[in-house]
Design goal:
With 224 residues, the chain is mostly helical. It has a single domain, classed as Phosphate transport system protein phou homolog 2, domain 2 (Methane Monooxygenase Hydroxylase, Chain G, domain 1), CATH 1.20.58. The chain is built from seven helices and no strands. Helix 1 packs antiparallel against helix 4, helix 4 packs parallel to helix 6 and helix 5 runs antiparallel to helix 6. The chain is elongated. The C terminus is likely disordered.
Amino acid sequence: MIEEKVIQLKKHLVDFAGLVEGMVRKAMKGLMEKNKQILLEVIERDEPVANTYELEMDEMSTNLIAQFQPKSKNLRLILMASKMSTDLERMGDHAVNIVQSALKLIEQADVKPFTDLPKMGEITIGMLSDGITSFVNEDGKLAKAVCERDSLVDNLKDSITDELMEVMKKDTSTIGRSLNLLRITGNLERIADLSTNIGEDVLFLAEGRVIKHHKEEENNKKIK
């Protein structure tokens, strides 16, 4: 009955997440390898499918609530899946933003060799993948690990920003290319933030712990 429908909803969400993860991977791969075809796939093929997934998730969630009037855990799962679907659609939009910047960059010479940018991409993609896995398995430990990785992404973004600022100061001809790179790091950071949101929601679902806005730290201080 409803348990089977919830499993179907989770499966659809996993498929949606796999698509979005692939979009981010292709965006970064196309950038690093200067492969225009891979980048265009994200916009021309993947984005329309992502939009369809979100509409289907909305319909499935609404129908489940209307048909079964779920309570307690099933209701929380359905509502969380619906919220995650919205987050995934936004991540897909950020992947498209990365592609748009990458399409401009691959036609030009590199500003400089970068090691932090691909590293930032891999950590961000890992956060997205693990966030969805933590939801499916209701794994609070994995969800917490996703949240903890957010600071790694932030630190890499700061490091890349500092590097690019220095590059632009020394050579003003790099400003346009550097701004596109900064736009890419900003979109990766937002994907990581949205993955962190998923981790926080899963941690609450699995363990009843609220860590949003450092709520857990505040509660610990009150206890002391």
